[in-house]
C-alpha cells in the first residue's frame, strides 16, 4: 500500500463516469427545457430540505457535531496512508481480502475477475456511488455478468436505462406516474392494473427482487464508513435491501473510496448523527449494517474489499481542495442548491452532481479534463451548500479556487492574456483612479446608443455575450452619479475624485 497512494508519477488511465461529455452550460440549457423535471426536482428537494431542518433544529449541539465531523475527516486526510495500513492489517486478520485499484479500469477488472472465479454470471448490488463512479454495471454487462440493483430508486433508473441524477435519491427526476410506466414496460409479470400508489409500486419492486435475493451467490456493495481500528465496514440504508445483500450471498465484494476511513469506533457516533439528519431528514438510520471480516457459518464466507483511488490522490494533493474528500455523500448541498434544483443531476455529466460534484469531479480528474472545467462555474456562490454541509466543506471557496486554476491553465506557457485578463486589467486601471473613472463616465451617452427601442442592451461582444444570453442589461443612465451629485450639491469638480481615491489626495 505504501506505493499506492499519492504517486503522481503513475498516471490514472480510466476514471469511469467522472468525466462530463458536454459542458455544463450546454447541458443545463437542455435540461432547463424540461418542465416536468423542474417540477419533480422542486417538489422533492423542498420536501427533503424541510425534513432536514426540522430534525436538525432538535439538536442544541448540531454545530458542535459539524465541527467534530470536520475535525475527524481533516485528521483522516492528514493520516490517510497510516490509517489505510492499519485498516488493511485489521481487515485481513479477520479473514477479508484487500485489493488495491489505482483507477476505474483496475477496479472493474478486479470485481469481474472475482465474480468469474465463483462461476456465477449474476450479482445483486447495494446502492453504491463508488460503483457508479467506475461504471461497474456497464463493464460487467460487457463481460457477460448481470448486475441487479436492489435499491428501489437505483432499480427504477436501471430499468429505464437511465442514469442517476442525485446522490441520495437517484430517481429524483421521475414522479410516481413515470415510475409506474417504467415498471409496466420493463418488469416481467407485473400486474397490468398497477397504479402509481407508492405502496403498490414498492410491492411490485419487492416481488421483482425476491427471487434475486434468494438465489444470488454474489453481492456487490459500497461502504459509507470503514473503521481503521477494527477493520469494520459499515453500510447505512433505508429499505433493508442492503441487509439482504450483506447476509445471504456466499461472496461479498465491496468497492470503497480510500477516503471513507474513520480512525475509531467512537468516531462513528458523530457521523451516525450527522448523516441521517442531513440526508433523509431522519433522526436515525433505519438499517445500519456493520461487518468485520468473515464469521464461520454466518453470512458471506468470501469477503473482498476493493480500495479505490481513481483520482483521490490528486484531490488530496490540492491543499485548498482536499477537504472535498471529507464528503459523506449525504446530498444536503444538492437539496439547497438553486442551480441543481433547476437543472438536475444529468446536467453535471459526472456521477457526482450538484455543488459537491462541481468541485469533486474536477479535483479528481484535473480541471483540464474534457468538459469538467465548466463545472466550477455551475454555481451562484450563494453559500447555501456550505451552511448545509454536515462536515463544513467550504464549497464556495473551493469553487473560486478551481476557477482560478482553470483561468491560469488556459493562459498556457506563453501567458497570452485572455479576454478576461484584458477586461480585469482595464477595470483595475479605471477603478483605481477617481479621475480615470470620471473620464470614462463621460462616455455613458455612447452606451445608450447600443440599447434598443426598449432601452435595453440585449447583446454584448466577446465573453460578455455569456451575460446577455440569458438576461438584458438596462441602458446606461443619462448621467453618472458623480454628475448628479455635482449638480445637486454644487460640489467642485475635483471633490468626487478626491473622495473616491487616495491617489488623487495631496
UniProtKB/TrEMBL annotation:
Region (Disordered): 468-506
Domain (4Fe-4S ferredoxin-type): residue spans on this chain: 324-393
Gene3D superfamilies: Alpha-helical ferredoxin, NagB/RpiA/CoA transferase-like
Entry keyword annotation includes Coiled coil: no
InterPro entries: 4Fe4S_Fe-S-bd, 4Fe4S_Fe_S_CS, FTHF_cligase-like_sf, Helical_ferredxn, LUD_dom, LutB/LldF, NagB/RpiA_transferase-like
Keyword Electron transport: yes
Stated name of the protein: Iron-sulfur cluster binding protein
Amino acid at each position: 500500500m505504501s506505493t499506492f497512494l499519492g504517486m503522481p508519477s503513475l498516471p490514472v488511465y480510466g476514471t469511469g463516469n467522472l468525466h462530463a461529455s458536454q459542458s455544463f452550460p450546454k447541458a443545463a440549457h437542455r435540461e432547463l427545457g424540461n418542465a416536468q423535471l423542474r417540477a419533480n426536482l422542486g417538489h422533492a428537494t423542498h420536501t427533503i430540505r424541510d425534513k432536514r431542518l426540522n430534525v436538525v433544529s432538535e439538536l442544541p449541539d448540531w454545530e458542535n457535531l459539524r465541527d467534530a465531523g470536520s475535525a475527524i475527516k481533516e485528521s483522516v486526510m492528514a493520516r490517510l496512508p497510516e490509517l489505510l495500513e492499519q485498516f488493511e492489517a485489521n481487515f485481513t486478520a479477520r479473514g477479508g481480502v484487500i485489493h488495491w485499484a489505482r483507477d476505474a479500469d483496475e477496479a472493474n477488472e478486479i470485481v469481474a475477475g472475482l465474480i468469474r472465479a465463483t462461476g456465477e454470471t449474476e450479482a445483486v448490488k447495494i446502492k453504491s456511488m463508488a460503483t457508479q463512479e467506475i461504471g461497474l454495471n456497464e463493464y460487467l454487462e460487457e463481460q457477460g455478468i448481470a448486475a441487479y440493483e436492489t435499491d428501489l430508486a437505483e432499480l427504477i433508473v436501471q430499468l429505464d436505462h437511465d442514469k442517476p441524477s442525485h446522490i441520495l435519491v437517484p430517481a429524483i427526476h421521475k414522479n410516481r406516474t413515470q415510475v409506474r410506466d417504467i415498471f409496466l414496460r420493463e418488469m416481467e409479470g407485473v400486474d397490468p392494473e398497477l397504479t402509481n400508489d407508492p405502496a403498490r409500486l414498492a410491492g411490485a419492486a419487492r416481488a421483482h427482487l425476491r427471487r434475486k435475493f434468494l438465489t444470488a451467490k454474489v453481492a456487490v456493495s459500497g461502504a459509507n464508513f470503514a473503521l481503521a481500528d477494527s477493520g469494520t465496514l459499515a453500510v447505512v440504508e433505508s429499505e433493508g435491501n442492503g441487509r439482504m445483500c450483506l447476509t445471504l450471498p456466499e461472496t461479498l465484494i465491496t468497492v470503497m473510496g480510500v477516503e471513507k476511513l474513520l480512525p475509531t469506533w467512537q468516531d462513528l457516533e458523530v457521523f451516525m448523527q450527522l448523516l441521517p439528519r442531513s440526508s433523509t431528514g431522519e433522526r436515525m438510520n433505519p438499517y445500519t449494517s456493520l461487518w468485520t471480516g468473515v464469521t464461520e457459518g454466518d453470512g458471506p464466507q468470501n469477503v473482498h474489499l476493493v480500495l479505490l483511488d481513481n483520482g483521490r490522490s490528486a484531490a488530496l494533493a490540492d491543499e485548498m481542495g482536499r477537504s472535498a474528500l471529507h464528503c459523506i455523500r449525504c446530498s444536503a448541498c444538492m437539496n439547497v442548491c438553486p442551480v441543481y434544483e433547476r437543472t438536475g443531476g444529468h446536467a453535471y455529466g459526472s456521477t457526482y452532481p450538484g455543488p459537491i460534484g462541481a468541485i469533486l469531479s474536477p479535483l479528481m480528474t484535473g480541471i483540464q479534463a474534457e468538459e469538467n472545467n465548466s463545472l466550477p462555474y455551475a454555481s451562484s456562490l450563494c453559500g447555501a451548500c456550505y451552511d448545509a454541509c454536515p462536515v463544513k466543506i467550504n464549497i464556495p471557496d473551493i469553487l473560486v479556487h478551481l476557477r482560478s486554476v482553470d483561468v491560469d491553465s488556459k493562459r498556457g506557457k506563453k501567458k497570452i492574456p485572455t479576454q478576461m485578463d484584458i477586461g480585469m486589467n482595464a477595470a483595475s486601471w479605471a477603478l483605481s483612479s477617481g479621475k480615470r473613472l470620471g473620464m470614462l463616465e463621460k462616455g455613458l451617452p455612447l452606451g445608450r446608443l447600443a440599447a434598443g427601442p426598449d432601452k435595453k442592451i440585449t447583446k454584448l461582444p466577446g465573453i460578455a455575450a455569456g451575460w446577455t444570453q440569458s438576461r438584458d442589461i438596462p441602458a446606461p443612465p443619462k448621467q453618472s452619479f458623480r454628475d448628479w451629485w455635482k449638480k445637486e450639491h454644487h460640489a467642485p469638480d475635483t471633490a468626487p475624485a478626491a473622495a473616491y481615491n487616495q491617489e488623487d489626495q495631496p
